[in-house]
Amino acid sequence: MENRKGSQNRSSKMESRKEARIEVARWKAETEARIREEGHKEEKEARLKAEKEARLKAEKEARLKAE
To answer: Is the dihedral of CA 28, 30, 33, 34 positive or negative?
Structure first.
């Protein structure tokens, strides 16, 4: 009887560890996805800023040539 209880306890511990590993893997995947997304967002913002500056510079040069 005692042996069976010990076996159930080990099984329960193994299941808990398995669930914990799954939860850690899920958290890690979500974190990596969020970091990747933030990186893409920063790249996009930098690209848009550079495009805006280039457009403003071109407009300024065009105005100076027109005068």
So the answer is: negative
CA count, 13 A, side-chain hemisphere, 62: 6
Question: Against a cut of 0.90, is the pTM above it?
Answer: no
Q: How far apart are CA 30 and CA 27, in angstroms?
A: 5
**pLDDT band for position 43 (50/70/90)?**
confident
Give the amino acid at 40.
Answer: H
Nearest 5 degrees, angle CA 19-CA 21-CA 27?
105
3-state secondary structure the chain: CHHHHHHHHHHHHHHHHHHHHHHHHHHHHHHHHHHHHHHHHHHHHHHHHHHHHHHHHHHHHHHHHHC
